[in-house]
Amino acid sequence: MAMAKLILLVALVAATGSSCSAWRLNIRMPTAQAVEDAAERFEENVAAPVIHALRPLLGSGRHLSNLAGVPCDSWRLAVEAYNKRDWKTVPANCEGYVGHYMLGGHYRRDSRVVVDEAVAYAESLKLAGNGKEVWVFDIDETSLSNLPYYATHGFGTKPYNATSFNEYVLEGSAPALPESQRLFYKLISLGIKPVFLTGRTEDQRAITVQNLRRQGYSGWEKLLLKPIGFKATAIAYKSGERQKLQDAGYVIVGNIGDQWSDILGAPEGARTFKLPDPLYYIG
Ligand SMILES: [Mg+2]
């Protein structure tokens, strides 16, 4: 503290002295109280350097960093950036945060940014127009949204329950994610054929087709589902299917999904797009 006071005293004198012509008239020693006050401000600024006149409400300001929402926001960022992997459930204290994110408009806004980029990219392509250019779409949390299910199952805070989730899938009632659907139809208008590639299994083909059609999807080139009993990671399965597409002469100009396992593993596609998904992780 003594050293801080000394530094501040020197700084105050120097600062006062820098006013050139006013030097002789205005110079005076700061009072003890002024030094004390400045020392407190100095200590505060060590904890949270002032880089803008507006003090941050989130992230760096002592007790402010403990406000509800900040840890969950950081958790979500780590998930989206693929720094956090192999997680089983959303942290219990983040249920409300994820719920608000998904339902409060943030999720849709984030999805819109991704799709705007995808559309701009697609429009920039010089296409061969030979009918072989395809774009791979994941289904769950990409083409269709299972938010109605997750909203009644803790927004991902509860362990995955295959029985109840598959019951939901078999209702065939999942709504379309409007942003992805916009991309889907933009691609068709450009002459790029959508291919669905999903971790859903073959026995769910009929209900998946029904669900997609009910939600306004039509005109896809292929719907690739996982063979029943197929054992492989999502990355191995999906990259293997993309390789088969390439081997059949298709050119994968784009690939979009909500999981990193949708877009990792050669051949990924000429460009990949990652939609947000803080609800669950598939490795
Ligand atoms: Mg998905």
From TrEMBL:
InterPro entries: Acid_phosphat_B-like (IPR005519), Acid_phosphatase_pln (IPR010028), HAD-like_sf (IPR036412), HAD_sf (IPR023214). The keyword Signal applies. Gene3D superfamilies: HAD superfamily/HAD-like (3.40.50.1000). PROSITE patterns: PROKAR_LIPOPROTEIN. It comes from the Eukaryota. Keywords: Signal. Residues 1-22 form the signal peptide. The keyword Iron-sulfur does not apply. Pfam families: Acid_phosphat_B (PF03767). GO terms for molecular function: acid phosphatase activity. This is Acid phosphatase. It comes from Eragrostis curvula.
